[in-house]
Design brief:
The complex is a heterodimer. Chain A contains 16 helices and 8 strands. By secondary structure, chain A is mainly alpha-helical. Chain A is globular and about 75 Å long. In chain A, about 50% of the residues are buried. Chain B is globular, with a radius of gyration of 20 Å. Classes of the chains: A mainly alpha, B mainly alpha. The structure holds CIS-heme D hydroxychlorin gamma-spirolactone (HDD) and protoporphyrin IX containing FE (2 copies).
Chain lengths: ~450, ~350
């Protein structure tokens, strides 16, 4: 019981943190881009965009920081044996990550409180760069630890004793390249989608047809398209990694029960784990073999090729599908919008397209969250693949259920309070009453 | 200096930076609330917010750096403390989340409701009281092994005089340190009205804070006599210096002169006191289960961690100086907020 609740508690904290953390990786990039364009084109509306995003960002960062501290302490509390081993082999990225946080935190403070303090506005813009480096680097470093859990490297375990420890090999383990690429690109993708959805919300429900919002849509959806394509490419690289190193995870993700040559890729489908069948699916013949190995006729091992105790649960198939679908959807919608607005079609800002853009926000967030849940549950029963099982890593303390309930209550409370506070903040300060906006549009709405 | 001593000294520095910065942050949080309740002039609130804006995120990272450093250099600390501190650690986390988010609501989202101020102020006071219980636990006697499982004797901790003297000391110190700092900040900002308020708090709490610190020695003599003896003999000179710093700082405060020096002296006072306590505690991290010589990480990892530390400090120190230059030593910012 305590094992289950330790897992659920870890998952809840991470799932909560990761939302704010992903925004923490992506928003600085978008703010920096907006300020860059604003300075370059001498268009103050982009500067206003950067300022307003930054205002909302400060609140999100605060939640990101405290929930991050939570997970940092909590993994020590809940998985002490894991951390003991990790401390010997993979503590280096944790330590470097702390310095990346410093970089981010220091320059975020500087960036936020020095608007207009320097004569040359590019100096202010340049402070956004260390923030981006710091947050992306910290995400990358923490992801190497997670990669290590999927493909441990850099040590040997002889009679329970660690030998031949090589911290660099542990960081640069086989899972690292695909993981970093996928985590970072998906973070930029998701953030851009979330901000585009927010803009669509104002256009749909507040009915403010300001040029300001059109510029915001163009910028966010361009980033979404680029990020989406990169994410898909990185996902393909991840799938090839998975086929080589975690084949049982791939089998579960694709609900492939029997080993097959020229295995088909499934789209959708209801899995019956007992009968080992998948109904209501669309099969793309031989595509799975191609996806996994780059060859249409390769053999892909099915779940039954692995001992029962090492098989991950098949329901991760659904999560995998939703994640991939969110990427495909995001690429399609953003490409359509950009094309339509390039050709100056009315469609671009019609309800017909704004609604799908609005939905893109929650869909991309779901894609990111489910991506993590899929890869983590897919590692079951291992906490470090092939080295340490979950039950050997968990704390010996009991009563974890109580802790889970306490933290769940805390996250619900904080989640609701944050939403409430943010909504209130921006409702009281609509764009067209922002002092800076009025300054820009003092001459009858024509941008200076 | 041996490898474990080197590692623990570095960790000590991060911890000490956290103690000072966190004291200022937690204490300011409470004073922010108090300033509203007691209807202090608005400037007092403004001073607090102006300092906290660019600094509070950095404060938190010192805590992270200390924890990852501890687990990196002494992996078994993760096992011992991780297991034992599940309950106090979780309480501290909940308070930390409440403190951080509610401060952000008040400050960044401009929510002016008193309940928000109260919550972040209270959480800020309770946090040091919970965090400090790590120290009495590390003195030994509160952790036992039953069937190979570590158990924290929670009731014994809660009824131990040592625990409560530490709690009292933490509470008073946090308010004292932050008041001394804010006195300096407000003086620099040219706001004598606000400075006077903070100075009064500092003067009222200075002696009780010192007294509660000295008082810790009594229950310590009971719980772990040999630790008490080492402080009282080998390291008493550190305590004496610490006391001298306090007296000087206190006199400067009373005369209302050199607010910056009095803050530096108070930092030095705490540094020496913590050193005296820390050195005499060594080599144990958790008495008697865990000592730094056995717990030190393997030499390969040690080597890499040290290099990461050197590289990291090369970023951190200039970064912090730049931050301080912009927001602490810049007359314009301190005075006008930009
Ligand atoms: C949301 C993002 C996320 C991130 C960034 C990570 N994980 Fe994970 N983790 C989860 C999301 C998740 C999860 C989806 O929430 C899991 C899967 C099953 C569960 O109960 O929680 C989980 C489970 C999980 C467990 C319980 C064992 C299990 O069921 O697999 C541990 C010990 C960790 N994780 C530890 C880590 C560490 C040390 C990570 C970083 C290096 C990490 N996870 C990254
Ligand atoms: C087990 C996994 C993780 C742990 C232990 C962890 C730990 C932490 C900690 C301690 C903080 C607070 C640092 C501070 O005070 O600034 C933090 C914040 C942050 N984390 Fe995580 N983290 C994890 C997963 C991730 C992942 C996967 C990402 C990337 C997608 C990420 C990105 C960030 C970012 C960008 C911040 C800064 C907060 C912000 O700017 O919003 N973290 N994390
Ligand atoms: C479009 C096609 C996509 C493919 C083919 C794909 C493929 C994959 C694969 C194979 C993994 C598992 C990696 C492993 O466990 O080793 C994974 C994980 C993940 N995916 Fe995707 N993905 C796609 C789109 C997306 C999108 C759009 C998002 C975010 C919105 C996303 C977010 C994630 C995350 C956060 C993880 C966990 C981190 C990781 O393991 O890299 N993915 N993806």
């Amino acid at each position: 019981m305590d094992l289950i609740f330790s897992r659920i508690l870890t998952g809840t904290t991470l799932g909560f943190h990761i939302f704010f953390a992903t925004l923490g990786v992506g928003i600085p990039v978008l703010i920096s881009l907006a300020e860059f364009i604003g300075l370059r084109k001498r268009d103050p509306e982009y500067l206003l965009l950067a300022k307003r995003w930054a205002k909302g960002f400060t609140i999100l960062v605060a939640v990101g920081v405290v929930t991050g501290t939570c997970i940092g302490l909590q993994i020590n509390l809940l998985w002490p044996n894991f951390m003991k081993l990790a401390g010997e082999v993979i503590s280096l990225p944790f330590m470097m990550e702390a310095f990346a946080f410093f970089l981010e935190a220091i320059f975020l403070g500087i960036y936020l409180y020095t608007w207009g303090r320097f004569k040359n506005p590019w100096i202010h813009w340049s402070f956004s760069l260390p923030v981006i480096v710091g947050s992306s680097l910290s995400a990358a470093l923490i992801s190497t630890v997670n990669a290590f859990m999927n493909a441990p490297a850099g040590f040997k375990l002889v009679d329970g004793k660690l030998t031949e420890i090589d911290p660099m090999a542990a960081i640069l383990n086989p899972a690292t390249p695909s993981k970093l690429f996928h985590v970072l690109s998906s973070a930029y993708f998701m953030t851009a989608c979330a901000l585009a959805a927010l803009t669509a919300f104002y256009l749909l429900f507040r009915n403010r047809r300001l040029t300001y919002y059109k510029k915001a849509l163009g910028l966010t959806l361009s980033v979404a398209l680029l990020g989406g394509i990169l994410t898909a490419v990185a996902g393909d690289v991840s799938a090839k990694f998975m086929a080589a190193y975690n084949p049982e995870k791939l089998a579960a993700a694709e609900a492939l029960f029997e080993t097959e040559k020229g295995a088909p890729l499934l789209v959708g489908g209801l899995v019956d784990a007992e009968k080992q069948t998948v109904s209501y699916k669309i099969e793309l013949p031989k595509m799975l073999s191609f996806l996994a190995f780059g060859n249409f006729n390769s053999e892909v091992r099915g779940l039954n090729a692995f001992p029962k105790e090492y098989q991950p649960p098949v329901f991760i198939h659904y999560m995998f599908q939703i994640m991939v679908a969110s990427g495909v959807y995001g690429i399609a919608v953003s490409a359509l919008y950009l094309f339509a607005s390039w050709r100056r079609w009315k469609l671009a800002t019609s309800k017909l397209l704004l609604w799908p853009i609005f939905l893109l926000g929650p869909i991309a967030i779901a894609g990111m969250e489910l991506g993590w849940i899929f890869t983590e549950i897919g590692r079951k029963p291992w906490i470090i693949y092939g080295v340490m099982k979950l039950e050997d890593a968990v704390t010996t303390m009991t009563g974890i259920r109580g802790y889970f309930l306490a933290f769940l209550g805390l996250y619900l409370f904080i989640g609701i309070a944050t939403i409430w506070v943010m909504v209130r903040f921006f409702r009281k300060r609509p764009v067209d009453r922002d002092p800076y906006y009025l300054e820009i549009h003092s001459d009858g709405g024509v941008p200076r | 200096m041996s490898k474990p001593e080197m590692a623990i000294s570095i960790l000590w520095m991060f911890l000490f930076c956290y103690i000072i910065l966190a004291s200022i942050e937690f204490g300011s949080g409470f004073l922010l609330f108090w300033a509203r309740v007691r209807k202090w002039p608005h400037e007092a609130e403004e001073m607090i917010e102006r300092y906290l804006s660019p600094f509070w995120e950095v404060t938190n990272v010192f805590l992270i750096a200390f924890i990852v450093g501890l687990v990196g250099f002494f992996p078994s600390a993760a096992y011992y403390y991780g297991t034992v501190l599940l309950l106090p650690g979780s309480i501290a986390l909940i308070l930390l989340v409440l403190k951080g988010t509610f401060f952000a609501y008040c400050h960044y989202a401009k929510v002016r409701h008193w309940a928000y101020y109260l919550l972040q102020g209270l959480a800020g006071l309770l946090l040091p009281m919970v965090l400090v219980s790590l120290i009495p636990v590390s003195e030994g006697g509160f952790v036992t092994e039953v069937d190979g499982k570590l158990v924290l004797l929670f009731e014994k901790v809660m009824t131990s005089p040592l625990q409560w003297t530490f709690v009292l000391f933490a509470l008073l110190s946090v308010l004292f340190v932050s008041a001394v700092f804010l006195n300096f900040y407000a003086t620099k900002a040219g706001s004598p009205v606000a400075a006077a308020k903070f100075r009064t708090v500092a003067l009222n709490l200075g002696l009780p804070a010192l007294g509660s610190g000295a008082f810790i020695l009594l229950p310590l003599a009971n719980v772990r006599p040999e630790h008490f003896l080492r402080i009282a003999t080998d390291y008493s000179w550190l305590l004496l210096i610490s006391g001298a710093f306090f007296v000087t700082a206190y006199m400067l405060l009373q005369k209302n002169r050199r607010a910056g020096w009095s803050f530096l002296l108070v930092i030095a006072q705490y540094a020496f006191a913590v050193m005296a306590y820390g050195y005499s505690h060594l080599p144990y991290l958790l008495y008697p289960q865990l000592n730094i010589n056995d717990a030190i990480v393997n030499p390969v990892m040690y080597h890499y961690l040290m290099w990461a530390m050197v590289g990291g400090l090369c970023i951190l120190i200039p970064g912090l100086l730049f931050l301080a230059w912009l927001f602490l030593f810049s007359k314009d910012y301190v005075k006008n907020g930009y």
